[in-house]
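Attaching the record inline, Q. Sequence:
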Amino acid sequence: MLPRRHFLRLAGATVALPWVSHAARADTYPSRPVHIISGFPPGGPADILGRLLGQWLSERLGQPFVVESRPGAGSNTATESVIRSTPDGYTLLVMTTANTVNATLYDKLNYNFIRDMAPVAGFIRVPQVVEVHPSLPVNSVPELIAYAKQNPGKLSMGSAGIGTVQHVAGELFKYMTGTEIVHVPYRGQAPALLDLLAGQIQLMFDSAPASMQVIKAGKLKPLAVTTATRFDQLPELPPVADVVPGYESSAFYGLAAPRQTPPEIVDKLNREINAGLADPKIKARLTDLGGEALSLSPPAFAKLIADETEKWGKVIKATGMKPE
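Structure, as predicted:
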């Protein structure tokens, strides 16, 4: 694997070309439609965010930014297709937390995400909620930990599948608290949530947007948020880190390009996306989606990716997690 420091250095580097060439390339980009590839089915967060930012970029840059869904292998199919594309800024990837998890979860990927992709810009960071079925006799994270230790192996934790953010968030919790909780993977977020509502499983580390309505309707019991600080839309919930120091988990989304994409094109896209994230209408839409704008420079986004890859790599190796 490419050393982390090397990755961060590459992400901030510029190609040594004449200034006139840089300016000309940035001025003329884009001169034709740009394809944004999502590794998940239409209608999901990656697709919605890609279309939201794609519309903004289309309006700002005068060319269509077209979102295409290519689901498969936990987003690895889409990621590899972008990596293998011409690095000219016309094929981009909606990258997600899954890319940082897959780097370790899959032993035989045909690419190295950190080595082969150029981080462009962040979109959004989405917290998760530790939520339980109302029948479970716990009302806080300390009570959940105590109950799990008193009843090892009797609690069931649902997720949208092996390696998803719900799964790794739960595994991190188990690892840091020394609890034994059974993981039950589903084929998607919705069926897991339905079984939690029905009491077939007792616990989920679900994304805030997916659970907000049922929490507010009193159908699930929220205990905490997984981010390091409180979440504005559920301000009454404490962070897990108040009880488990150092715990943090959240889903994040952003844009990436093939490794050798000209840096002036990366910088142009970064400026335009960050301008979009500062726009009141887009900020309001991101709030509706249950997250907060993730406005970062390419090097800062590269650091986030490297940090998350390292964190989830440790969890995967410690727990022996394997892909489906």
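Confidence is low (pLDDT under 50) at residues 14-20. The two ends are 23 Å apart (CA to CA).

More tomorrow.
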